[in-house]
Predict the structure.
Amino acid sequence: MVVFVWLLMLLDQIDSTRHPPFNPLPVWPQWYRPGDFLVGGMGSQVLCHYHLLTFTTPPSWDEAEISDKIPKFYQHMLALAFTVKEINDNPRILPNETLGFHICDNYNIDQMTYFSTLELLFKSHHFVPNYKCGAQKNLIGVIGALDSENSFHMANLLEIFKVPQFIYGSFASEESDAKEFSFYHMVPKEDKLYTGILQLLLHFGWTWVGLLVSDDNNGELFLRTIEPLLSQNGICLAFTERILQKVQWDDYDDFTGQVQNLDHHFLNERVSTFIIYGDPMTIIILNAYLFLSPLAAEHTFSKVWILTAQTDFVLTGVQMLAGDFRFFHGAISFAIHSHELPGFHKFLQGINLYGEEENEFLTYFWEVAFDCTVVDSKDSANVPGACTGEEMLESLPGPVFEMPMSGHSYSIYNAVQAIAHALHTMYSSRSNARAWRSGRRARFLDLQPWQLHQFLQGNAFNNSAGEKVSFNNRQEVEGGFDITNLVTFPNKSFFRVKVGRVDPTDLEGKELIIHDDLIAWQTGFEQVPPLSECNAHCHPGSQKQKREGDKFCCYDCLRCPEGKISREKNMDDCISCPKDEYPNKDQDRCLPKSIHFLSYEETLGVSLASVAMSFFLITALVLATFIKYKDTPIVKANNRDITYALLVSLSLCFLCSLLFLGEPSKVTCFFRQSAFGIIFTVAVSCVLAKTVTVVVAFMATKPGSSMRKWVGKSLTTSIVLSCSFIQAVICLVWLGTSPPFPDFDTQSLTTEIIAECNEGSVLMFYLVLGYMGLLSLISLTVAFFARKLPDSFNEAKFITFSMLVFCTVWMSFVPTYLSTKGKYMVAVEIFSVLASSAGLLGCIFSPKCYIILLRPELNNREQLIRRNNCRIPP
């Protein structure tokens, strides 16, 4: 009771001199008016379509605030009338019942909104809460309003009585959730609109955009929602400007101040995309601003306008004479989904000024739209500027009236159809059927509005356009938004081209469906999508670096670090190529790496293999020569068997180098280092045995020497076997615990993958080399101290020199091996094997071969026992 008393007190304070008292206007001919009775004597149901036509504060420079109306929205009322007529003419829906409607005007005043709503609820100009007086017109549902503010004012009263309220405007979820029970959304909530705007910007790559929002609660809510959403997806707002909804048109300074605030935004060439959020008044004010600001107007021909669903292209007042929408040519609008209805165009063509009785709304619309005066049809010829009645709606430009059904009109049509189908379902229910049979049929006049909710929520039907209409569990009609492109013409008319759709049923990130080839761009873009970004793109091969003090959409471009690439534009960070690929010169893609190993086919591999085979053949010839001359003194000296073993091991050393050539395999990796280590150890052991033999033989020649018992094959055989056995044990442990295996090194070389043998245990590998080096040092030391022994017993000089070469080669091998990669590391090891083996072969056996083959006269016992030094002639 307190609420109603407060409302009454508030309404009593309305200034009747400025805004006339509300008087419901008859709108349609007799057969449309509420309260009519048809066959069966049943009363019609009343629908209230709320706030369809009026807006306040249109452009005017008068000192007084002038109330004006926008004729374009008259189509909403015509859609309501068309739908009611279609239902009443359809015998399959609500047979024997007549559906009526009542149109209210609130003059865009909050107090009048409450006044009109109370009048609808209590059916009388004398408000008595909880009592119904006057004509029995049964209110069953309310359609309205276009904006959220008036809808909420209505809901404050309608929700108390659970009257269904059908909203045909697009509201934010946060606004309508609190009124979820009474609200039925004929249009998807703005959540899908946010997704559509985001996907559109991403589709065209517009990352630096401006935002113009209405200076009201809706604009603030949109700004709070859209700004973080865009930011999360790499899009920045270059500026945010609020458009005053109630510009003081009588104060020129206030208006020009608004113009100056917007001027510098239009001069910014980097911002080519403007998002507009608001209602038709936002466009009216913005269009006036563009018309009055030549500087800004000049630059708007290189801008893209993105408009939200509640915004519409309308003209009012003086704009209908001087204004147009050429500034908005090519604008992309998210429009409420619509579909042309059979018969609607013909219905509009049948609207006639003098054919409608008692239709004051039509009279006012006709005068405003056609700029004429409505007089009695008999006097029209005698009154200057009188309406003839022959004017056609098709002749009106789009900003004044559009013949195609708009999205809002389509939503109104579906709302009325939803109510009618819900009533029909209730009418056809089993309970009413049983009551009919018993003679107690429930009268629709006794129907309460709250009883309609259960039939609305589960109701689904196909409208005359063939589209299915139903409410989900949030009392919202499923669907998306159409995307239209505005094409303007010099005669102030325009045409909307449907170029896409926001379809929420598609996968996430794919909700936007748009056809770029259908879009007509502004004349300054040469019919190609413009750029709207803070700076030029960072091309592939570079990455973004944030500028200090600027938004994250403003950045510098730096070339990718070495070894990294960027395949796409505007990458935040460069990425590394996969292990088997490497960056190309421009660092914008990865190229496959080639396999890198020492092949038999390449020059280096062929050269090393040829050298190895040559030395093998030379060693084999030396061995054959020694076998042929085995009974000569020079061959028999210093243990013939050890000499044979040394030559065989050297020949195998040359052959084992071939295991290092070619692509590594499991077999070659498993055997090559172990074979090399054991064979070389045998060779070095033979050299050590020969050196020890020289020393022991020299010491045994001294009178009374105890070394004579060591002279013979047993000592040399023991040395060779024991030294080789230790190396064999080391290799067996290596192969049994952590053997070498084929591996690929993708890091060492930039453009190639090294096919190599991973040594498994690096410790065991260097232990094998270390043991071999230890034997070499021992052999070198022993040979060095024995180098001055008499020549008849002495090979120590040649052994000393050969071991010096051997140790020098392998001491150089270690640092060189560690500092090279790939096939060159393998080549270093092969070269070391060949060089050290060739050093042993050449230094030890070349003097003997010289004597055997070229100086056979020196190969006799007398020469060997000479105490003087033997000098080999050149």
In short: The first strand starts at residue 45 and ends at 50. Residues 104 and 297 are 39 Å apart (CA to CA).
